[in-house]
UniProtKB/TrEMBL annotation:
It comes from the Eukaryota. It comes from Oryza barthii. Keywords: Signal. Pfam families: Fes1. Residues 91-182 form the Nucleotide exchange factor Fes1 domain. GO terms for molecular function: adenyl-nucleotide exchange factor activity. PANTHER family: ARM REPEAT SUPERFAMILY PROTEIN, PROTEIN FOLDING REGULATOR. Residues 1-37 form the signal peptide. This is Nucleotide exchange factor Fes1 domain-containing protein.
Amino acid sequence: MAMAARARCSRQPNSHRLLAVVVLAAILLLPVASAAAAVVAAVAEGDGVENRSAARQWATGKDEGELVSGEESRGGGSVVEDEFAGGFGSLDSMLQWAIGNSDPDKLKEQAEGVQKLSADELLKRRMEIKELMEKLKMPSDADLMKIAIADLNNSSISLEDRQRALQELLILVEPIDNANDLDKLGGLVAVIQDLNNANEEIRTTSAWVLGKASQNNALVQNQILGYGALARLVKMGYATSAEEATKALYAISALVRDNINGQEAFHSENGSAMLQHILASNSVDVRLQKKAVFLVTDLADFQLNSGNSGLPFLSDRIFLKSLVDMLSRFDLDLQEKVLLAIKSLLKLSSTEATDFESCDLSSVLYRLGVQLEELPSEEQKEYAGEVDDLRREVQILFQDKLKEGTKTAL
Ligand SMILES: *[C@@H]1O[C@H](CO)[C@@H](O)[C@H](O)[C@H]1NC(C)=O
Ligand SMILES: *[C@@H]1O[C@H](CO)[C@@H](O)[C@H](O)[C@H]1NC(C)=O
Ligand SMILES: *[C@@H]1O[C@H](CO)[C@@H](O)[C@H](O)[C@H]1NC(C)=O
Ligand SMILES: *[C@@H]1O[C@H](CO)[C@@H](O)[C@H](O)[C@H]1NC(C)=O
């Protein structure tokens, strides 16, 4: 029973929160019988997976007759109190109670019983219920994280439950305080282990959780890097599943963003070869390629702003050629992202104008200009115009860099 309740609790943290509010409102505002009906309606609506006959098995075992007679003989209130005192320690057990006591005929009987109470008795009972509800504790985010982590740490759990535990963590780690707690609770180790799971979906969601937890969070970035997870993520970047590679790249981007340690690890794990593979391969999903281009821009901008030049691949000629070649693809969005990347790369002192020249950047930009003028459909005209402005900017930067290069060469 405890396991079942924990599992349920871990499964639907958000709908449980919503339910708690409904339950609270229902019980405070209505006589108990109709409150129970409201709870059942809420369960049926909010928690669609619930199965009443299954839920009944979790009920406390007391039947309605017992409850009603207890109520009457003790003048009201005490039954509910007994139930609470006897272990309504969680929202789950309260729901079990509500569901277990929700037979419509019995509810009607109960409602009639409630109506027999005097206004004073009713008020008194509501006050008692209110007090009890205040004592009733909702599981905290930390509790929910512990449950999900314990599930991940249990090797005999089903794949479905493992996936669900990861998806809960995905939501739970969004607030920075929760992300900061993840490692203390053993969560990072558990999630990183699942990067090696035989199941693709599990690996994918694990990478997603790591990316979400480390986004704009230097503490978590460094914790994950400290566990050496980047090596595995770089390997996942080569995955044939676009979804898996995309989430791996998402996590990598989160880990290296504004983080020298992350960028050093990326370099030593040969992350540039993975990026090169994504950019240059025709079989790779274009959305993944766009993300890779975006990462390049991000890394170049960081290098530009920090003066740190720990990523030699950014000025590697073969790498630059892969980028320049992408400008010949007929995809405005991709072309725009690539132009942004080249613009940032041209500004780096570590890149050579002659390397761009040997990639034929001049004629590629010229052909792109022609294409942007002639090809776009009516609805793409405006966007094509913006991309063309960017193209001109890149062209000017390139010409300036070529002149600079000539000057230093003289
Ligand atoms: C509901 O639970 C009962 C008993 O546990 C089971 O026989 C039935 O198949 C379940 N229905 C659904 C829709 O899960
Ligand atoms: C691990 O999961 C299995 C299957 O759900 C369960 O029976 C078992 O009690 C769990 N073990 C722990 C330590 O929670
Ligand atoms: C995971 O399980 C192992 C034993 O199987 C235990 O030593 C460890 O503390 C558990 N970690 C967490 C986070 O529950
Ligand atoms: C990086 O990966 C490329 C392509 O797989 C490989 O040729 C190269 O040797 C690797 N370099 C290192 C330092 O591992």
